[in-house]
């Protein structure tokens, strides 16, 4: 499971600001950030269209464009996200500073040697 | 190279020095400035230094590897003590003081002095020699202007916080003075302290660089909130814990010696990091302290501390939230948002270590991993945290399960917790004459009180295991105890082996079952073998029905409810059990068991005299039961083995279940993926109406 696919990973809070964002440094990050933001619209639409079926995880995932194996990535990300949230020392709304989370995200990003 | 055995203190000290000198972090130290400065600071004639370098092999290699460095340090110590430099003396010299290094750098001193004068460092060192365990607050808070959060930090670690640096600021004078002062008791410590003090001052300079210590510091020196306070940490905390001992005495310069037992703590700390190889090991005193702290938050040692309480507690340590967050991540092993005792100890230990200047590891060290000390952990049922407490108690309650009830007590609570729907065998109701019922009650009581009795087959089968393993075990027991009716392990084992429904409410506990069966079994041995009947019946309410059973039994000596226990079969049993358990069983399976057990014990005792008034049948049973009682002490040992066996079995079950769980998860994952792909296809086929 070492083929990474992500070039940019972002965690967006409810209020539409990023709690966490990281890209492969080589690319034009701004473009990524913009894409992330626009994809929020897709997500929003999907949520409103379908309602709460099967839990948010799947819903949100469908907002992404490429399923299947990326779903594993998403799930992993989501799991580590919940771990961060479970941390009592984490204030919701703070940027995510967890090293463990960073580690997992790095593991998912495209490996640039 | 010659083999070198170092004491723990030496090991630590040398390691710190090595790290300090290892500026390139390459694990070998060239004869660069630091090393040379260090050797110069040893105040030895240069030809001695040269000789040392040669002896340790650095000349040969061209650089100082770790072993060469250590040998060199040891030789320096030897030379400083006036002994001739011999390779053989490396290991033969006993009680060699640590090598001393004079603080040579003026600027370092000045800087350090400046640093130390800041109030933060002032408060660091607890009064020396007060071999009292320092108050917790002292530890970390000392650095922070003496914040007295008394409960937050364990006393032991505080001492490191204290002062090694205190001495450096005052420069060589102070520590020379210290040396003189302390030459008595802590001869070893003294030079260490002094040396470390000096060394630390040197370290101070490159504070932001690779600070000495365990190499852990470098990474963390600046990040924290008050540079100064961290500085003082790093300065004084030498994880090497060598410092503490001496410094307490030298602390006189330091103003606020808040923490009391610096000496004690330093000793503790030294001990705690005694094995350099495992700086994360928790000493017994520390663990005890942690356990006590745990109790202040959560009296039940097997319970959890919720995240919010833990947050408050650790926030008192004044560590930055980010670090506390990291510590939490490391120590909340099961990621359930709550801390078990082990997790709490690990977290506390990390906090302590951090306060003392150790860097936080990226991953949880082995020695801090929560161990499955009790079945609760292995059960790993976060949602049943409320029940965790209970699970422990039944275990404790029935420590001496008779061998025949292996794993019952311990496994049972967990089993019940996690497998409520698994089978706790229901006792099959049997027809019981009033007298029988009464007798059974007696039996039940008696057995209940009598944990040591060989297992009543009925009793304890952890729901899961009962089905397979337990049955044979219980059968064995039953067979063995046909007449004696050994008490079941009341609380948990509600596996009614015999098809008799002893208690109306289907008392899961064997007691009930026993009682019912006893009368019958006395005449008819084969009844014991009727486990198969029980297997089928799962009574998750059984645990909860235990208390009810008790209650029922006690008041109504079985008359009413027991009578209802006609052999109606499970159907009747279940409803009644549920009925009974519902009102009372809301408190999770685990909660009731321990209590009923105790009650049964009492009632059993009370009933015992009554028993003897019953008919011959009962008296037979009673006699049998009583006869078994003397065997209790004998069976304690067997109980332990039984318990261990049951533990093993439970663990096996756990692994099986875990495997099953993972397989199911995998299936679920696959299905979800399928679904996703199907939905995607659907989307593609549908016109993009949503766009």
UniProtKB/TrEMBL annotation, chain A:
GO terms for biological process: endoplasmic reticulum to Golgi vesicle-mediated transport. The gene is TRAPPC2L. CDD domains: TRAPPC2L (cd14854). InterPro entries: Longin-like_dom_sf, Sedlin, TRAPPC2L. This is Trafficking protein particle complex subunit 2-like protein. Its main location: cytoplasm. It is found in: Cytoplasm, Perinuclear region. Belongs to the TRAPP small subunits family. Sedlin subfamily. PANTHER family: TRAFFICKING PROTEIN PARTICLE COMPLEX SUBUNIT 2 (PTHR12403). GO terms for cellular component: perinuclear region of cytoplasm. It comes from Astatotilapia calliptera. Keywords: ER-Golgi transport, Transport. The keyword Secreted does not apply. Gene3D superfamilies: 3.30.450.70.
Automatic annotation (TrEMBL), chain B:
It holds the Pfam family EH. Residues 117-191, 539-620 are annotated as: Disordered. One of its GO terms (molecular function) is calcium ion binding. Transmembrane segments: none annotated. PANTHER family: EH DOMAIN, RALBP1-ASSOCIATED EPS DOMAIN-CONTAINING PROTEIN 1. Residues 10-97, 286-370 form the EH domain. Residues 565-575, 602-615 have a biased composition (Basic and acidic residues). Gene3D superfamilies: EF-hand. The keyword Nucleotide-binding does not apply. Keywords: Calcium, Coiled coil, Metal-binding, Phosphoprotein, Repeat. This is RALBP1 associated Eps domain containing 1. GO terms for biological process: endocytosis; endosomal transport. GO terms for cellular component: cytosol; plasma membrane. The gene is REPS1. Residues 148-165 have a biased composition (Low complexity). It comes from Astatotilapia calliptera (Eastern happy). Residues 650-681 form a coiled coil. Residues 319-354 form the EF-hand domain.
